[in-house]
Amino acid sequence: MVRFREGARLDTSGVQDRRGGGGRAAAVGGGGIGVLGLIAFVLVQVLGGGGGGGSSADVANILAQLQGGGSGTADNTELAQQCRTGADANDSADCAAVAIVDSIQDYWTEALPAATGTGYADTQTVFFSGSVQTACGGATSGSGPFYCPGDQLVYVDLTFFDQLQTQFGARGGTFVDAYVLAHEYGHHVQNLLGTNQRVTPGETGPTSGTVRLELQADCYAGVWANHATTVADDGQEPLITEITQDDVDRALDAASRIGDDFIQTNLGGGTVDQDAFTHGSSAQRERWFSTGFQTGDPAACDTFSTDDLG
Predict the structure, then answer these.
(1) Pairwise CA distance, residues 280 & 259, whole Å
(2) CA 52 to chain centre
(3) Which of 89, 111, 215, 288 could potentially form a cystine with 95 if both were Cys, beta carbons 3.0 to 4.6 Å apart?
């Protein structure tokens, strides 16, 4: 099980807490998903969840409905009081998410310039509950976690991690949460590098740019995971002290349950339609996370220059 260094100091400045209750302001909005507005919710709605098949035009129509903006307000007071040390992260899922964000950004701050010559720009993860407004439009909890290039923020309703277990049947665990967050920060890296500009919004299919973008983000998540126990915090000691094989197995299990084919079969209309793929198959998602984890090299994640996506 993932463990954080007990005495490590957590930095909550990488998080905006917009959840309602406890003095925090709730945000409002409609539905919106993924780095290009696409995640499981769209797959379910478009690929048979509503009783019929879908097309890229259906996806484009949904995206068109998501235009808008806004930000909402955040109050980190309670989170900062609760999440002070690695010991807090070992005891609290909220604090673990804070620690994971810290580790991911500390890694890319050093690794991105070394690998690409491009500097890394810190961004924030927005914790929201129910719904939220973003520069990419409104989103609800049903959207799943996503990255918005418009405001360069990662958005997550932390109850999604419970839904991965109850709705998708994933084993779950802290490292699964870390995989999901690291995937979204992979999209931030892509945005900084301009990779997402190579993708046509609404494009679908097994070899589409949309799929390649998602698989690369999985690979980047694996790259961070490879280095996670050596990434030093401000105290120049690793924030994460242990990742077990069981943690890795759980992440791969989660990856297999958010593949397009799994979602279409189990949460959609029951028929696999590769032409509607937006994230890649279960096997592909496992493969590219594993590629990143095994190599620890961002250069190994070039999904745009291969004809073999798995």
Answers:
(1) 6
(2) 28
(3) 89
- Per DSSP, the residues of 249-296 read HHHHHHHHHTSHHHHHHHTSSS---GGG-SS--HHHHHHHHHHHHHH-
d(C-alpha 51, C-alpha 255), whole Å: 26
Report phi then psi at 146, rounded to 5. Answer: -160, 165
Alpha-carbon torsion angle 114, 306, 250, 126, nearest 10: 60
Segment 38-80, tens digit of pLDDT: 334 333 333 333 333 333 333 333 333 333 333 457 889 999 9
3-state secondary structure of 157: coil
Proportion of the chain above pLDDT 90, given as a percent: 77
Provide the token pair at 2: 């993932």
Structure tokens at 257: 């349950």
Nearest Cα to Cα of residue 183 among 48, 86, 288, 98: 288
- What tokens appear for 131 in the block? 């719904």
**What number of residues does the chain have?**
310
**pLDDT, tens digit, 9 for 90 and up, residues 219-266:** 999 999 999 999 998 878 999 999 999 999 999 999 999 999 999 999
Helix ranges restricted to H, the chain: 40-44, 56-64, 77-82, 86-91, 93-116, 160-166, 174-193, 209-227, 245-257, 260-266, 282-295
